[in-house]
Amino acid sequence: MAVNDIPPVTRRHVLLAGGAAGLLLRPSTGRGASAPPASAARPVLLHIAPATVELAPGITRRVLAYNGQVPGPVLRLPEGQTARIRVTNGSDAPELVHWHGVDVGSIPDGAAEEGSATIAPGGTLDYSFVPTHAGTRWYHTHTMAMMDFSRALYGGQFGFLIVEPRRDPGRHDREVLLAVHHWDASLPDVPKSPEYCAMPRYRYATFNGRLMQAAEPVRVRQGERVLFRFLNASATETVSLTLPGHVFTVVALDGNPVASPAPVSVITLGVAERVDAIVHMNRPGRWVLGPTDRASLAAGLGRVIEYAGSSGSPVWTAPPASDWDYALFGGAAAPPVEDLRLDGVFPMLFERRLAPDGMEGWTINGRPFAELPPLHVRAGGRYLFRWTNLSGCAHPLHLHRHNFTVLRRGMRRIGPIEKDTVQIGRFDTIDALFTADNPGDTLFHCHHQMHMDYGFMQMIRYV
Ligand code: C2O
Ligand code: CU
């Protein structure tokens, strides 16, 4: 897409709100915020190598990262055009880059289970695909960590991937990208009770790799409409965010526009989920855009939102109660699933079953990934996933290379919500409709790093 294909928007700015060094401010022309767009002649370059991330002065961490920064560069790929991304692996282990939420083929998808190539240490791989749905996607490593909390998504390998629409709806003046991440995982204990879920604890939590107290404020002006693109790039933690004095109008979930944009005071993001929300800036002052709980605030998660001309200490207040519910955004409830014409129904039960040695273990229909046959689908078929969570914690369920449509949560039918990752509550159920429209092996898994590493995955195979 040439620059002149996009109507110029003079007042609009894009901000990847980081620290002083991570600050990227540019007039929006639809071009990459920090990585130039791919072209046949010149692919986007991503280099994987150890890098030192400064969470705050004096608090540094050595992690694997893309292009020496956390998050990696923002990739802005024009909808409908071939993207070329050249990845070089400067680490000492094989790597894969997964384009989360993009409808790519199995080979460039970056999942070893689907047959994607890995990149050997010192090696290079060219990824090429055509993103066809505009929206907030992301990219990340698809390696395993097991109990090594320096690896995979516990480290620094993630970044925004924005598929730029052919036509820019232009409903906002400023764009702010915020990726949540947690640092310094440890695992206190692994109790054997099936109702319990082992949850890593973390010392620090950041937006864009920077603690709030060490980050530049996000500067806004009264009257602006700011589009926030939130990404939860944590390995295992769910987050809830609030901006005192303001409401978020949610316009997209996982990058997919919602049928019925609606105002909320709290946004909850399971691991790997994205939310696009517009905030009308109409309460001058200095505010903390941050978590709803004090512990995460103390761990450093948050950004000061500063109106031009305002001063004083930033204000954070705990919201009354979370109003977060996917059903708010789906419009009218879908017809009962019994009325749908389907080519198959896949009941899938999720349970924590520890290995005999007490090691973490997750199963689908009683079996871990290694013992689980693929689900068979045929191209063009429509299927219903009937998910049941028999464990005491929520799970971000993710399907590679496709979206699915959430139609029911628990006992309640909801308006259709297009997702690539959906959070299933503890002991809850979800029905989701899936159209098999992108042939090739397709991985389904819980995006909680520990759960996917310990068996919570299944293959979907086109036959
Ligand atoms: Cu973000 Cu297997 O995915
Ligand atoms: Cu899980």
Furnish the topology, listing elements before pairings:
Elements: E1 13-16, E2 24-27, E3 44-56, E4 59-66, E5 75-78, E6 83-89, E7 97-100, E8 124-129, E9 135-141, E10 158-164, E11 174-183, E12 204-207, E13 218-220, E14 225-232, E15 239-242, E16 248-253, E17 256-264, E18 266-269, E19 274-280, E20 286-291, H1 294-298, E21 303-307, E22 344-352, E23 362-364, E24 375-377, E25 382-389, E26 395-399, E27 404-409, E28 412-419, E29 421-424, E30 429-435, E31 442-446, H2 449-453, E32 457-462
Parallel strand pairs: 1-11, 3-6, 5-10, 11-14, 13-21, 22-25, 24-32
Antiparallel strand pairs: 1-2, 3-4, 6-8, 7-9, 9-10, 11-12, 14-19, 15-18, 15-20, 16-17, 16-19, 20-21, 22-23, 25-30, 26-29, 26-31, 27-28, 27-30, 31-32
The protein binds CU-O-CU linkage and copper (II) ion.
Model description:
Helix content is 2%, strand content 42%. Strands 1, 2, 11, 12, 14, 16, 17 and 19 form an 8-stranded mixed sheet that branches. The protein is mainly β. The protein has 3 domains: 9-164, Immunoglobulin-like (Sandwich); 174-329, Cupredoxins -  blue copper proteins (Immunoglobulin-like), CATH 2.60.40.420; 337-462, Sandwich (Immunoglobulin-like). Mean pLDDT is 90; it is low at 1-12 and 17-34. Residues 98, 100, 111, 140, 142, 272, 398, 400, 443, 445, 447 line the site of CU-O-CU linkage (C2O).
